[in-house]
Amino acid sequence: MPEIPASHPPVPPAPPMVVVVSGPSGVGKTVICDRLVQADPSLVHSISATTRPPRSNEKDGVEYFFYTEPRFRKAIEAGVFLEWAEVHGRLYGTPSGPLQANLDAGKSPVLDVDVQGGRSVKRLRPDAVLILVAPPSMQELENRLRRRGTDDDEAIRRRLAHAARELEAWKDYDYLLVNDDLEATVERARAVLTAERASVARRRQAAGG
Predict the structure, then answer these.
(1) How far, in Å, CA of 170 to CA of 118, rounded?
(2) Whole-angstrom Cα distance, residue 148 to residue 159?
(3) How far apart are CA 103 and CA 97, in angstroms?
(4) Under 8 Å CB-to-CB from 23, ≥6 apart: which residues?
(5) Which of 52, 75, 80, 164 is surrounded by the fewest CB atoms within 10 Å?
(6) DSSP string of 69-138?
(7) What pTM does this model have?
(8) Any residues with CB less than 8 A from the CB of 186 and at least 6 apart, and which?
(9) E strand or H helix that includes residue 142
(10) What does the longest C-alpha to C-alpha distance in the chain come to?
(11) CATH: 3.30.9.10, 3.40.50.300, 3.40.50.2000, 2.40.480.10. Which one for 19-204?
């Protein structure tokens, strides 16, 4: 009679993953990222670098790494960034060093980047999980931008035009979430990450098989 093993065969642990969350300005992606990280200790914010000036409540190295444009350009030449892009006249980039350090520590970095950055990350890291957050309608997106009270009419028009172009990138993403209700959208995003952690293909790839 065959011997019954005392325990189950070893199963490889779920590997950490790069999570990209993109979407138009005002769609709620930053809040979604915050909620995901707050609720899951295996997730960590990936801090981007930018040349835009800090807002009154922002600190260097917390919300962003704030660079001058010459410093940012030198960092590009030095290969510091995993991805970088120019958005609304400002430069944004993801430093690759801290991101890799998080992965090496078993943490999954969450990147809040635009669709240009999302495409770049996917090219360099095909195993990244890309989530695009969309508004329920362009009218609702305009309403949210106006409620923020940070932009004049011309800036809002530019943001809406840019949003329409960004949403055309949905086919380049793995998941599309319509943020019609914030709490429900956060739960859908959490479900996406739960499914990705359970993926046999992801574990097989991480194990080199």
Answers:
(1) 11
(2) 13
(3) 10
(4) 29, 132, 133, 134, 166, 179
(5) 164
(6) HHHHHHHHHTT-EEEEEEETTEEEEEEHHHHHHHHHTT-EEEEE--HHHHHHHHHH-TT-EEEEEE-S-H
(7) 0.87
(8) 32, 35, 36
(9) helix 138-148
(10) 79
(11) 3.40.50.300
Q: What pLDDT was estimated at residue 9?
A: 65
Token digits for 189? 């995003």
pLDDT (tens digit, 9 = 90+) per residue, 135-161? Answer: 999 999 999 999 987 888 998 999 999
* Contact indicator for 144, 25 with CB cutoff of 8 Å: no
pLDDT > 80? residue 8: no
Structural Rg of the chain based on CA atoms? 19
Query: Inter-axis angle of helices 153-167 and 138-148, to 10 degrees?
Result: 140
Distance CA 145, CA 29 (A): 13
State both tokens at 208.
């080199």
Question: How many helices and strands, by DSSP H and E, does the chain display?
Answer: 8, 9
Q: Quote the CA–CA distance of 66 and 49 in Å, as a whole number.
A: 6
